[in-house]
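Now for a chain:

_____
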Amino acid sequence: MLIVGVVWSPNAGGRTRVAVDAVLGDGRVHELADTATPDVVAAMGEADAVVFGSPTYRADIAAQLKGLLDQTPRGAAYESGDPLRGKVCATVLTGASDHHFLAVEKVRGILGGFFGVQILSPGLYFPSAAFTEDKTGLVGEQRQLAELHGRALVELTTAVRSSKWLRDLRPLV
């Protein structure tokens, strides 16, 4: 099973990457700061599941991640490809404080409604206080929560892969 992480952060290897790594365990991560959009879209197409990670800015995902989603085909008649079709996705957002946690619902709405993916619930949001002092890991309970989401993502992906009906769902419009 291949689970891919897609992370946008102005600081490659920063807190958002740390949080996505905690969910993924051994998955591949593509940082948008270092990887061309076509390569990321191709990696999403090869994956069984995708974890999207972004810091939050004014209670929204980073413009670069939104830009990637804007450029990702979803199987419309005028597009070639639909790399997220039949996939499971999870969301991991980071922010300075708890005040931006609702941004998780915005990106989940885009993924579920616009792309028709199956989404692991709930989405994760980690404020600065969730990280170790040196910002290289998540603290106890937060680390356990990320690992739990990683295991649940594998289980949900297995269920979707085994269901023709769930794999065949697509956006309505």
Notes: The longest helix spans residues 140-161. The radius of gyration is 15 Å. The first strand starts at residue 3 and ends at 7.
